[in-house]
Amino acid sequence: MTAGLARFSINQMTVKQLSMPELAAACGESGVTQVGLWRAPVQEYGLRATAKLMRDAGLTVTTLCRGGFLTATEPQARAVALADNRRAIEEAATLGTDTLVLVSGGLPAGSKDLYGARERIADALAELGPCAERHGVRLAVEPLHPMYASDRCVVSTLAQALDLAERFPAHQVGVTVDTYHVWWDDQAPAQIGRAGAGGRIHAFQLADWITPLPQGVLNGRGQIGDGAIDMREWRGLVEAAGYTGPVEVELFNDELWARDGREVLAETVERFHSVFQ
Amino acid sequence: MTAGLARFSINQMTVKQLSMPELAAACGESGVTQVGLWRAPVQEYGLRATAKLMRDAGLTVTTLCRGGFLTATEPQARAVALADNRRAIEEAATLGTDTLVLVSGGLPAGSKDLYGARERIADALAELGPCAERHGVRLAVEPLHPMYASDRCVVSTLAQALDLAERFPAHQVGVTVDTYHVWWDDQAPAQIGRAGAGGRIHAFQLADWITPLPQGVLNGRGQIGDGAIDMREWRGLVEAAGYTGPVEVELFNDELWARDGREVLAETVERFHSVFQ
């Protein structure tokens, strides 16, 4: 694997305390050339203004997070979700990234039907895939850890994500491999091979697993190197599967967010160096 | 599936606010004839006293929870864990249950090696299996939800639990199927079939999945019927696989523990009736 920062990308959520211009400036100071962005802060700063800011700062946008939430049963809610995902595709194209990360969505209220929810995602991908292709954007279905299966993402494993993605061309639909979500899964290494063979690893993200998990289990992702996940092993797996794209660090962590964002970015860069040296 | 309480067992942890005699009395009042016990309250009340109390109350002990925590690398810690598990086997035999539930244990401090930890469990089962057989006790390896993989249980799926169990005779080592831990897993139905075909479903436990998860994610299990899990489907799966044993409700829930234990037991019985009617 390559040392240095050529492959590194900082996901904006890791340093969400930074405004968009602060993020661009901090990247310049730290030698970071790639960023993953989120829709809400992009919309807040303005889509075209963000695209210009990133261009002017020499920053490449590696992913836009996120589309998805495609499990509604009610026709009106489903139409709203599809329209929102079409906008997300257009936003990704405007930002110059070729990758839109999709978080599938959880069970509709009162439902216990994981299988039906996964089928509705497939139906939605059939509509969104061609739209993404027209914009030069690839959809990257992200399996989330099974602890999110009911309320955020009914796609819990890489195998499930690939079962969905492989119904469509690889340039339309692939997967996101995030260490935080797949590290526990002894099937994941083989599934990474499957994804790589099909050209479907569209994004690779790092976060470490630390405990105890916080209430709601959203904002307890560990700085890389702090937890139970062997980052070198997982990076080695995606690279052995042929992946040569960005390695994005995406942390949701209340403690990191309480600190100075530029310091957190510098720490993340340093950890990236030390973990992969 | 059979309605009525013939198959029902109340795991003591569901109503841990009840003392051992209160538990026995409450079971009598509610028509409950089977209980799953935990080692700590048994030891507190006294092993032989508990066995006598249960016998006198006409209660069958369906499981003893729990042995395990077998992932230590350090020889002294490993010897201590094995000795403790031998005691747990003897306790199970004294209580008259044929089933000791095993929670494997998490990663040793600083380790990132899930595979090595699972192999150490296999080594421990090779020592404990014959001991269990001599006492007429079966070890029931319980996969815990992947959110516990680092700190409590490196065995996260039924497939992994069966990969371990099948190295040994079924009358020595099988698995525990707990809806809370496996409900998200699309491989679990097939693995239940595999377990049943091998005569390795040694325990079946119910808890429902509700969100948000509490800090530490230990004590947020939902009353059956309150969450995302289709209890009828899972009971149907284990019964289709040939399981005819107890259906034990095991809830860890701070809100339930804050209420009157007899009321919680009565509610649990009523839910069991309504979910399976």
Please provide a written account of the structure.
2 copies of one chain form a homodimer. Chain A has 277 residues and is an alpha/beta fold. Chain A has one domain (8-276): Alpha-Beta Barrel (TIM Barrel), CATH 3.20.20. Chain A is built from 11 helices and 10 strands. Chain A has helices at 20-30, 39-45, 47-56, 75-95, 114-134, 158-165, 179-182, 188-197, 231-240, 254-257, 261-276; strands spanning 8-11, 34-38, 60-68, 99-103, 138-141, 173-178, 201-206, 208-209, 221-222, 247-249. In chain A, the strands form 2 sheets. Chain A has an 8-stranded parallel beta barrel with strand order 1-2-3-4-5-6-7-10, surrounded by 7 helices. In chain A, strands 8-9 form a two-stranded antiparallel ribbon. In chain A, helix 1 (20-30) packs across helix 11 (261-276) and helix 8 runs parallel beside helix 9 (231-240). Chain A is globular. Chain A starts with 7 loop residues before the first strand and ends with a helix. The mean pLDDT of chain A is 97. Chain A binds chain B through residues 107, 111-115, 145-147, 149-151, 156-157, 160, 183-186, 209, 211-217, 227-230, 233, and chain B through 107, 111-115, 145-147, 149-151, 156-157, 160, 183-186, 209, 211-217, 227-230, 233. Chains A, B: InterPro entries: IolE/XylAMocC-like, Xyl_isomerase-like_sf, Xyl_isomerase-like_TIM-brl. Chains A, B: GO terms for molecular function: isomerase activity. Chains A, B: It comes from Streptomyces yokosukanensis.
